[in-house]
Amino acid sequence: MKLLAKEPADSFFDTLAEIYDEDADFFTKIIACKKCFDDLFREITKDENVAFTGTYGRIEYVLQNWGAGQELSEKIHRFRRNAGYVIKGRTQKIDGQLFLTFLRQICEIIYALTECGIPEKLAEALKDAPEGFEETKTRTYETIDFSNCIVLNKTDIKRGAAGGENFSIFCEDTSELGRYSLRIYKNHFEDLAQLHESINRYTTLNILNINISVKEKYFYSTGFESQIIVEPDFIVEASDIAECFANYIYNPYIFFVRKFIPSKPGIAAFKGNLINGLMDALISDPGADPEEVINELISENLMRVLYYGKDAIENAVKDILENHYKNLMMIFKSRKTDSIRIEPTFVSPLYGIHGRLDALIEPEGDRTKKNVFELKSGNARAKAEVWVNHRMQVTCYNMLLKSAFGKDRKGTSSILYSSTSESPFRNVVCGPAEEKKVLLVRNSIVSGLFNLANGNFEILNALKSGKAGIIPRFMENGLLDFADQIKNAGDTDLRYYRYMLSFILREHRSAKTGSAGAEDGGFASLWSETAEEKKKDFKIITNLVLEEFGAKELRFSVKEKVSHNFREGDIAIFYRNDVTGGSPVNAELIRGTIQKLANDEVVVEMRNRQVDGNYFAKGTEWNIEHDVIESNFWNTVRLLFEFVKAPKYKRELILGLREPEKGSAKYESDKNLSKDQNDNIKKAVTAEDYYLIQGPPGTGKTSTTLTGIIKNLVKSNTKIVILAYTNRAVEEICGNLSKNGISFVRTGRKVSEDSMGEEFIPVTNVVISTVTSFVSKIHELEGIYEFDTLIVDEASQLTEADLSGILAKFRKFILIGDQNQMPSVVTQTNIESEVRDEALRRLGITNFNRSLFERLYGICVKKKWHHAYGMLETHYRMHREISGLINVHYGNKLIEGRDTQNDEFTTFDGGSQDYVEKMLSKSRTIFIESEYIKSSKTNRDEAEKTVSILKTIKKVFGENFSEKTVGVVTPFRAQIALIKSFIGDAELSEKVTIDTVERFQGSEREIIIASFAVYNSFQMKNLQSLNSADIDRKLLVTLSRAASQIILLGYAPVLSEGIYYEQVIKHIRKNGLYVSRKEAELIFAKK
Q1: Which of 159, 289, 499, 1004 has its CA 20 to 30 A from that of 45?
Q2: Pairing of strands 165-173, 143-154
């Protein structure tokens, strides 16, 4: 079998050679072998148009589709199973012999799948390695409590001899059970047809509580206690499942109506948020003044206050104080000594659900009890009963606690209906019947989402044709409107909506379970990977020691310094390491934001106040991992429908089918601006429909051009919304507008409690927001402001899915970006995001990972709509010698805006006794050849030389050395960690940013050092990021971050395989300083 080319196969062998040589314990080495095994099957299947939620599915796909023999199949599965035993601690002895067994097996697997010979060094190391793992006999069980398996085949539904309908699946357990057949009976599952539809080939299942068939070995059947969970790593929110229940019926279509169709927020939901916030405050301090608490909560919700109006807010507050407050006080005054955790999150990969309880209570008398408490602010049901959707929500929470704490978890479940005086505190009892209904709905939701992501639009057809079943009355008008709009949409518009929806849902799936070609396993890596695996991928901070606990803040000291990819402002999950044993699914998770990230300290802000001093005790150990905000995906999905609803001319503009009209507004040139800036501002201001501005690096597209556009639009009293991709970009825009005396409102700001009157309504015409914040608040904003002109900064970093629904809401839009710089962040591979619909491809929509800015700009250039686009040509950052490296990609039109950009280079002393300084003095553009080192994602030679250069720069700059002096760009986290480990200088560590190019977008340094750390063609292909014009965006951004000097380190023969890299190296050979390996050895040896 030859499933991989020689280049990637050699790269895998090189990685294994590194593992063999690595100075690490045998457990760590085996984990590294397993990661290589996972990466191997990910690489083989990355171009397959099939959704995989784990390595096992990829393995079976490869074995089934490429005809692997029985011997190879068994070898692969033995490796997988034994790696699982090691990870789960079920291997008694982990020693050198066991490691060599793993190493030998993975080498033989690579050879079998690629026909590439095992390198001599590895072959020599393995000559005395055991031939295979000790045989573990497949066991037969009378009953199986749990099986995680992959479906290899299924039968149709048939009627059995006794008259009961059933179907069978043939599957392989991912652990020691092996292959078996399971017959699934209708009398054990309420909707057998729906379950049958949810299960397909290569579907991953969790199967609980099945029995062996009396007649045959390896044949099992379901019983009344059996449960089946489809794609369990794709976890579904408990409240989303619960809302599909109403009036004793359940309907999974309710989920899709809620997620796909926009709805305006009602005052009841906002009042519920206030009541929950008041409850949190009363748990912290039962003596808190309720009016003060509520006013503080209101001040944090500026847009909603304006949207609902003063009277509605005052009525809501009055109702809370008169009808809800007393019930809250009644409950929590009596629980002052209980241990209460506010809104803890639980995740269950067993049941495929997650949820956030209102409160988890451990009574004072018995801390082993885990009581579920849920607050509901709506109307209560009569006769002390609970609504069915509330019962199902509590059922989900009980399943989560059972998953986290075991089947023997003790505790009650109760709901407080805070508005009623008749038995407000109500006990909830739920059992196996409710659990089965929960899983039925959950499986239907997952199946429907996977079908839509894969291009099966039956659910949309059901919503359009009135076959969505019974839905709540308040949703009916929205569904009717949705159906009418879909029915009346043009063929092209509908194709655009459908395939864009599929793209967003694939991104959503990738964020949860990982994509075909990405190394990251998505949110599921939280439980599917060990801490050691996460450390190797730099996505966990372990063993933080809690030093200080505040109501909403935690301060940790760093016990063990680990390299990681977190930064300040990241949303994250925090959990007790000493309680969970390092497993985040065995206890509650706390969500929040990283506020400070230093070498010796980490400070986080929790999403909710906490009061349990025992749980948050000083000295406890915690871990931090990345979080995913799922609501962002659903906001984008709902907003996409606005494209379908937009007028025909607007849809045609967005699709590039209609030429934008010219405007006739007047513009007075600004003598302080360059000619190209004035030209672009004029065209943007006078455009009738839209205008696109390409802003190459350092051309002042944000600081000058965007500000100039706003200044002119404000003069004409135009209503403007300004969006940017990041908070940092928003802050820069706000700063520029403040300097120019332009008033604005930024979404998310707090307001004072005395600003509730008419005078609170802003007189400004300018609103500024991140895209994410705007989309989440769009209905409130639309109720306050008139949407006229939209300006989007860094629009090239946003996908079509991010923007098309937003653009549909505005009369006119101005997009500012640069398709030659960093692209939008997409987790799917090029193959996954490729557009296969011919009608869309004819419109230039060939891949959904491209930005709408890039596509429209290309259409305008092609159709010669010169009035609709332009490029800024005067740049103010790079010296002319550096801009010469990128100018060819801008038609050689870039010109310097400052005289200093043509100055001679005098920063370093050419007569210095420091040979590194002498080298640095010779040119502003330097390429230093590195040694050929077979190392995966690291190069020690480059790391050492980088640190040597940094120390020289620091010495030369002296007191002027700052955070703006120098930065280091490298594509790999492992190389970042290696460089940092060599520094040994506190000031350098603090003041020098060493990061990937993605983190440098939008910033600059006087000097940039780039360490590429690649040694083979396979790595080189993955290093590049080409746009539609085959311009390497990552390299261009790397080069253009430097104002005064750029220093590149890399292995030239491999780098030159990239066309743009080859051009840059040739340019430096001719015009800069090219340092050969021999020359570099002499220079740095003398250092």
Answers
A1: 499
A2: antiparallel
